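Below is one record:
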Amino acid sequence: MKRSAWDVYQEVLAKARELGLPGEEAEQARALLSLPQEAFTTLAKELRLKPKYLRHDLLPVAFLPQPLKEALRLGLPLRHAHRLYRLLKRGEIRLEELEGRPPEALRGLPYEEVELDPMSPVWIYPKDPRPEALSPAVARALVVLYTRPGELVVDPLAGYGTVVEAALSLGRRAWGGDIRPMGPRVEQADIKDLSRRFREEAALLFLHPPTFRSWLREEGYRESPEERYGAYVEYLQGLLEYALPALQQGGRLILAAQPRHSLSSTSQAAGRDFFLAPFERALAEVDPALKPIHHHQAVSREGRGSWHLFVAEFHGKREKAK
């Protein structure tokens, strides 16, 4: 099994202690770096490392800020840790942007600052390396279109917290929760508990559920995707039902989805519909007072990713909270 960079770094620190080097890890790293060339080469050989890798990649870990060390421990590739440190020293990112973020989020920093025209029929956004992440530019366009300053934006499946950060930067109030938060502005919270936290308060309710492929993998289904697609739409409707009590009268709900782009021959023969319609039905059938009003399409600049954003507006009677 391949050793992670963090594990190898710990082996180097253990070797420094074995050699009796005093001080904290930064002092120990300086001592190792100051070894004569022959002694340093021997040390690298004992650790089963190339001398250049030990000198230029591994020992400099001792001088990284704590958020990057923690991210390395959690799996951030070493090259990204050094890249982010260079950006930090050049002032292109701030230390606060690194704190509390998981490796998946750090790999995407810094985000390319792009402003989209909210009225454009298709939004073209820059590549984002974070898995299934909504582009910050798309999040800002949605907040601008569907809220006013001071209004509350709620995202109970916030993930990295992109929508929350966009809303706060535009002068809105915002809250984000997720059972597995991946950003510093996201609380650990279950969408099932949302109605106990917010009741008819959100001007914008944003739902960014797992994609169909991720949901299939997480649920561990072994049947063909075609046999499970209906269950996925039901799953989406369940999320909507949990979240809807948080939405105020006249508030907007946005469902972010990645519909399938192609069908198998089995699905075609069965006449099944797997494109946009299931997502529109998920919105329309969960509550008659939830009326679909808009649909936006966002496509990544390199053409490999896309999001369909379905917007509905709520006007209807509420059941009294129990």
Notes: The mean pLDDT is 86.
